[in-house]
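We examine the record.
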Amino acid sequence: MSGARMKHGFDTLARWLLAAQWRSHRGRALVAVLTIALGVGLGYAVQLINGAAFNEFSAAARSLSGQADLQVRGAQPFIDEQIYPRLATHAGVAVASPVLEVDAAVPGKSAPLKLLGADVFRARRIAPDLVGVPSPQAPLDVLAGDAIFLSSAAQTWLGARNGAPVELQNGTAPVMLRMAGGIARTRPGQRIAVMDIAAVQTHFALEGKLSRVDLQLARGVDREAFRQTLQRELGARFVVTETSDVESRTDRLSRAYRINMNVLALVALFTGAFLVFSTQAAGVVRRRAQFALLRVLGMTRAALVRQIMVEGALLGVAGGVLGIALGFTVAALALRFFGSDLGGGYFPGVEPRVAFEPVASGIFLALGIGVALAGTLAPALEAARTRPAPALKAGSEEAALTPLGTPWPALACLVLGAALTQAPPLFETPVAGYVAVALLLVGGIALMPRLTASAFRRAPRSRSAVATLALARLANAPGQASIAMGGVLSSFTLIVAMAIMVTSFRVSVEDWLAHLLSADLYVRMASGGDTGGLDPAQQAQLAAADGVAHAAFTRTSKLTLDAAKPPVVLIARELDAADPGATLQMTGAVLPTSAWRADETPVWASEAMVDLYGYRVGERVTLPVGGKDARFVVAGIWRDYVRQTGALQMRIGDYRKLTGDLTATDIAITLRAGSSAAQVIGALKRLPFGGTLEFSQPGEIRARTLTIFDRSFAVTYLLEAVAIVIGLFGVGATFSMQTLARAREFGMLRHVGVTRAQILALLASEAGWLTLLGIALGCLLGFAISLILVFVVNPQSFHWSMSLHVPWTPIAVIACVMLASSCATAVLSGRRAVSVDAVRAVREDW
């Protein structure tokens, strides 16, 4: 026979084998395909949702900057407008456009309206899309003091139309305006308003203030060199940024969240790889005689490896393609019904639409194929190494799995994983931590054959014949037992790790809230926003209201310390410098008051400030507070689960002395003995400005915060459910395949008098012991991985720490469900095997 004809014959044989494998094991193949599809689909959906939201949010942020080359902002939210003529006449500047950006409170709404005040003549040259479009009958409305122009989304949100009144709020005072038209062009869902800059300054008591100055440079000016020169001229109180820095800040803010969501979504895919491996390994062991016969007939080792790898690749292709379609559908539905941020809250005010991403699709498709090939490679190489003659005889299956018992690769993975937990983050992302988790999981599963053999050989023997047979087989066939346990171990390990991580975070947040919410009632300016606040007279009225024992006032603002990073929140409140732990949840020792210098002001930094800015207790820093650089000393580090970009707290007396700002935005009220919260709320509502206040009790704030927490971790809860399903799929597929492969063994047992019921009991016993061992080892391995998630991944991702808490009851319930399901699956799979005629099953053995 010629080489070409032989090659054609083997190609035809390969197609026949693929078709036969599909027909005879269609159910197991579908399980593997669905598992890969789940992993690919969840990861792809998360990528599409976050990618669409980030792109739309970045486009909306860029639209606010128009065609500006640079922006000059202050370290604090507002700057003196005297900087504008200096910049407008600066050499190299073609156009300078002043902008006053205000988050204006809206009565009856839970969110503020972004209001831009601009010089229409300057804005037309830099940001023509953000210019108001007046009616042809009133072209001068762009300069009118009461005219406001709304984007389409803002018009819908406020229910406004041309000529209708629009009410905003400056502190406790209403601001009545008139809708004069729309805006030239805005992004879908972008709720913004535009007014003349002088009108915004007047209505919101910001005379002489700006938010930024947009600069368009003259032709030929080197932008980066100009930016550096201008930054040196203006000093630290101003920040000179490029418009792309807005996108960079958004990326840094949401990067950890997006990466963590993608990694969690890939958990299902990672677990699916073990299911593919166990399915393929069991299938290769079962078909050893077939492969040996093919080798005898002339198939080469390379051709045999290729044949098995093609089987795995087809599973990966089918699962990947199905996963891409599933992910696109899930992303489209999630964006339509549940919003764009999966609970993260990083992309407010945008309406993204899912779009097909060729690069992301290719990556996730490659991941699906990759995990299938990775799960198939070891069984394929083992099949190629096996000598045909021994493989044609029955009883050599366990010998094929002997290489799996080699402990050194597994131990190397465990040691390397432990070492990587000490590595610092890469690009502010815990890359080493994620790799350590993967290595611990791989190493732990790779040790299973050795641990299985050791555990069951040392197990005490029972008087029951069924139990004795079950333990003897598990002890003498640890390779096959480990394959059966792989799906249980991988899924249960990840379930335990994620459950401990989420529970630790949730309980830590509850403890933090209990420490933080020490007052009886909390009051804030309704609708949020950064316009105005309670003046000293109003604060005095509130503190003197009936039933109020004490009112602690807070003023919140922002500081920009680094142009490439999001602003830091500055919180001024009542703090006892001698005992800051009474108000804040401190994470370590605090600086005593005796350690401060006379010209220093104490400030307490959140944990994020340690990671992002290198703050340490006792460190002296300079902060642009109050229009000048003031000297501060870091007096302690406190825990903050709200602001991952950093926060600073200082005494409100120090803040007022440095800034001259006497207003307050939030109030914590301690009730007088015998007074109820309802009575005090009623008294406060009767104040002249009572209608502008919003009231919350500690229980309400705690419930609302935990609801947001649960929404943020909804994907994690879903992935835990997926991991359980995948684990049960793995148990079912593997036990079914191994049970059918043991038909000859069951036939021999039937010949010596073992009944069908006893064989089914034997299978249930084997499944029970295996699953118990898998659950025990899964608890240990999951606990080790949870330590990495709690003490490495989360602090490096979000810059906060937490205490460890184990949810024993949910873990025990899931363990019982998996144990019962494994035993039931083994019995159901065994019914088919024991139904085969005992004599025929034994005759198949050579």
Remarks:
- The longest strand covers residues 93-104.
- The mean pLDDT is 82.
- The two ends are 31 Å apart (CA to CA).
- The chain is about 55% helix and 15% strand.
